[in-house]
Please model this.
Amino acid sequence: MEVRESFSLKKFNTFDIEVACKYFVECEREEELLEFVRSYELNPEEVLILGGGSNFLFTEDFDGVVFYPTMQGCEVVGEDGDDVYVRVGSGVVWDDFVAWAVEHGYGGVENLSLVPGHVGATPVQNIGAYGMEVGESIVSVEAVDIVKGEKVTIDVVTCRFSYRDSIFKHEWKNRFVVTYVTFRLSKRPVFRLHYGSVHDEVIRLGDISLKTIRQAIIRIREAKLPDVKVLPNAGSFFKNPLVERAFADSLIEKYPSLPVYPVDEDHVKLAAGWLIEFAGWKGKVIGHAGVHEKQALVLVNTGGATGIEIAHLANEIKKSVFLQFGVWLEAEVNVI
Ligand code: EPU
Model:
């Protein structure tokens, strides 16, 4: 374990913002982490837990403790018929785990190829893409509770997964440092090809298999989403807003091409990227903060932006989308 003081987070946030934290605790061993939280009696308000840093926008220095868990390993811990249980360290790069699963012929996470970040952050955010959410494959989450100073195993029901959401974003925000996640994968996967151009792209690559699905998703993502190394960003900045069906119907009357996704009988989600593009923001730049030219849901640091500049751009977009459509966008990214 390493504890550093007044530590720069520039390399630990994909927006590439220059900010610092008071203490930075990098830890690979659970026992050491437990010992640390027991001796400091922290509370969640003075703590941040960082994975790959791909879901944060820092607008100022963080005057508290940042935990950076680096637990490694990817181990089959059980099998049950066609199901395989795999326990993965929270510090493993998410896409390395997806590549491993696909290589071994285990299905369940292939549509989530190339999602940035570490394994430990995936249950917090319940990452999702191309018709798949990670919460569907998670069996349990192991974590260290910084309040009680103990190790816990949290089952999937307790995680309360929903669209880009979990209990770790609400009552348990910044309270549990995830150490391992156990996934249930399948040796006989059911392929998910219904989202957007996934099916057509897979067919173009040959037979339908875990490998071609992974390849197709990588192609689709690379064509649309900017590489953080070239154009720092945090993926989708906003969530797709959930609205009442009747309200959506009234919008569609005015804007027939607005994409909507069914949620339940009374609710639908609207494509935030479409709303932002239609409001005229695609490709716009204010100062050093911009709206990506191929996917309006992604805000980018065009070079040397401060967190405040990006937050300012986000606010301008929110106001303008509200004035035009009467919909308030909500950030998916954690704004600190
Ligand atoms: N659209 C536009 N203009 C844009 C962007 C999108 O008109 O600038 C339209 C598209 O044409 C499409 C619809 O909006 O009809 C949806 O677009 P897309 O399929 O690109 O997906 P999204 O809703 O913008 C969500 C996730 C992404 C995920 C994709 C694919 C959220 C907030 N975002 O984006 O997740 O990769 O679906 O499943 O749910 C992330 O969370 O960081 C992320 C990238």
